[in-house]
Amino acid sequence: MSWRGRIVRNPPAEDVESLPELEKKLLKIEEIEPDMPILDVAAKVKRTFPPNEFERDDGSTGKVKNVILADGTGSIRASFWDDQVEIGEKLSEGDTVLIENARSVAGLQERPEIRIGGRTNLEVNPDRIEVGEMKPKRLKISEVGEGLDSLEVVGRITDRSEISTFTREDESEGKVGSLTIGDETGTIRVAIWGDRTEVMDRLERGDVIKITESYTVPGNYGGAEIHVGERGKIETNPECEEELPPVSEIPCEHFQQTKARRIE
């Protein structure tokens, strides 16, 4: 626009009658890219995380709540900031959400994330919306990164810990155990929470396990770690298409020695 140009806000109706209607398109999660200024999407809530408080550079306190959303094409993290946290707190796993006028940013490992802001409209369990189920995604251990959901992985146990107990903020008692598993591409730490720790009594070093419906988080000292919660499943010595190497031949390039973070 040149210096002589001008912008008219809310021009007369006769000037806009001939303009076409803006067609809204619901994106599939696999279509979302970083830095989209506006987007609409329908998805199911796969996982919710407690809100976190943080201190900004100016000394003020902020708050953020993250949820994992999924459809038949993939999963994505959505974050609710400050005043929007209250909206995120009302969501439960399994809810269907219709999100309009959100935006995206580059998050962990440059993966897209959805940001819920003041102009965003969010409708929970709308009657007219159907969302496909996300299929589990099997990966080699070297392919496992942070922020994944509905993960499936097969590995041989190279190390295991004893089950430990801890007290949550609400004074209830929790349990967590950990394993290190590996394949021909490397090793990774697995944290097993709550009732799922019962399987650890039957696991030995050298066993092959198949983990499904798990998710990943950043490890305390870098890299990703796999978490198995109440929806996760562990199958011992399953039938495998490929033979895994013995413990002595499993490389350790991708192993990160971490402690379980209490985010159950």
From TrEMBL:
Segments forming domain OB: 56-100, 153-219
Keywords: DNA-binding
GO terms (BP aspect): double-strand break repair via homologous recombination; response to ionizing radiation
Any one Gene Ontology molecular-function term assigned to this protein's record: DNA binding
InterPro entries registered for this protein in UniProt: NA-bd_OB-fold, NA-bd_OB_tRNA, SOSS-B
Pfam hit, one: tRNA_anti-codon
Name used for this protein in its record: OB domain-containing protein
Organism of origin: candidate division MSBL1 archaeon SCGC-AAA259O05
Lineage: Archaea, Methanobacteriati, Methanobacteriota, candidate division MSBL1
